User: Fold this.
Amino acid sequence: MKFQVSRQSQGAVSKNPPCAGAERGPESPAWPGEYEWLIEVDSLDALMAFVEKHDGAIGLFTPEEDETHPTLEIFDDEEE
Assistant:
């Protein structure tokens, strides 16, 4: 299954990938030079490994009307 992936500190689109293995998706029409990032997992075990790799700090969101993939948001430890 393919997920859009983002990092809380970067926002939904960014110039740089939010995590290792993320593939660049389409450019954001609202933010030229910034892109959606996608990651594909082939099993529930692979999804759980992704969550574990990021210390369980992941949010999973269902796609909204204009989105094609569910979103995984990586929560950063930068905020106190």
User: Anything to note?
Assistant: Residues 2-74 form one domain. The chain has a mean pLDDT of 88. The chain is about 10% helix and 30% strand. The longest strand covers residues 2-7.
